[in-house]
Amino acid sequence: MMAKLADPIGVFDSGVGGLSVFRALMTRLPFEDILYFGDTARVPYGVKSVDTIALYACQMVDFLLARQVKLLIVACNTMAAVALQAIVDRSPIPVLDVIEAGARMAVDRTATREIGVIGTPATIRSNAYTRAIHRFDFEVRVFSQACPLLVPLVEEGWLDHPVTRLTAEEYLKPLLGHNIDTLVLGCTHYPLLKPLLQDVVGSGITLVDSAEAMAEQAAAMLEREGLANPQEGFPHYRFFVTDVPYRFQVIGQTFLGCELEEVRVIKW
Asked: Is there a contact between 38 and 18 (Cβ–Cβ < 8 Å)?
């Protein structure tokens, strides 16, 4: 599969959460076309089996490859944690994932060398963030907490809701008992809750959103592979979902700050 400079970047996620990565890419790579796939009919992924997650991930990979993307970005931490090898094995083009980017940023930012990680049950069970963080600094202590209810709350659009705040407070209580100064948002849905989460943990703890680091990695890879789009034209964005496009559009427009003109429903 021969990629062309003008081919789009493909971003995929279990639902709306990957829009945090999409937004970072829009800012860092303003001339690149981007295709986004959110599997909104089958979210959340974090409570599903490894085999099911891998199957769903490969379906989305095939869909994006059929549309001639030049780079695949796994915006879902759960997929990156348990299905990355299956994705890489299936793809003839470069693949980037959010876990390594977030781990590197967390190690760079911590002073106490005690880092908290929140994510879906599948991501936390995989221990992927702890392994990634220890690749950069083996002496960092990592404290992890699964937060299974946060993804459904984000998908519902309850980004600043009393129920969401109470849920976050309960989940974060054990982590705040340690000397962490850095908290990794180990799910791309969680940056949509960033103001609420920062308020819960306090200003002394740095929230690590791997979306920004991912955008930097994507820019570096496109440059290194000679795939950056040299045309400084208006970018073309397309969105594909498997269910409820209206809700996706509402949340997406709030988060991206622009109208989502092309949102199509894909039925498997």
From this structure: yes
